[in-house]
Amino acid sequence: MTVGIVVVSHSSKIAEGAVELAAQMAPDVELAAAGGTDDDRIGTSLEKVLAAVEQSLVDSGGDGVVVLSDLGSAVMTAESAMEFASNPDAVQLADAPLVEGLVAAAVAAQGGAGVDDVRKAAEAVSFGGGAEPDRRDGPAEASGLGDPDATGDFELINPLGMHARPAAKIAGGLSGLDAEVTVNGADGMSIMALMALAAGQGSSLHVEARGKDASKAVEYVGRLVKEGFGEL
Prior knowledge:
Mean pLDDT: 88
Number of strands: 8
Oligomer: single chain
Shape: elongated
Strand order of the largest sheet: 2-1-3-4
Radius of gyration: 18 Å
Low-confidence stretches: 128-143
Structural class: alpha/beta
Order of helices and strands: EHEHEHEHHHEHEEHEH
Strand content: 15-25%
Number of helices: 9
């Protein structure tokens, strides 16, 4: 069993589309879409969300459930559903961007992470509000973090390069480590930032890490790259 994940959105199409995307990267994770009202209008339904949470509690086999939502009233609906759930202590609400957070959470769950770490993986990704660093000075100078504790350079060998699945694997795995990581100057825990690198096959990834788990972080990225992200 793995941690279950429920997606709450005002739109059934958004919820279903987000689940479809995450399922491509985490095929063994139970993902449930709870979008729209009971009559398929824009809005949220407590009954629909509660039903999804209860089913996820069953499907997860006791491993727990993480809920992600889009807009404010969806959060309130999710919180109400958690209160009425048969096992509210096993359900956690992630304060995270819906798509990026969902993918990071799903990848973490696919890797066997517990409910606390799955929620943290979702919350570790960026909401995308920061300014883009000036990479002409290099990652360390742009971030103001000083010299890295560990570095590594790795050549992408998978045919499609840094697309959504590799980016999700990197971000999801790094979220569980005590380290700040950049990849070619981009935030290593932001799926969108990694994808924006547009790094194709044969490109080099320069990884810098700072913190207690810096070496583990660099080794983790290097292993993924050398294995072709499981796509070879």
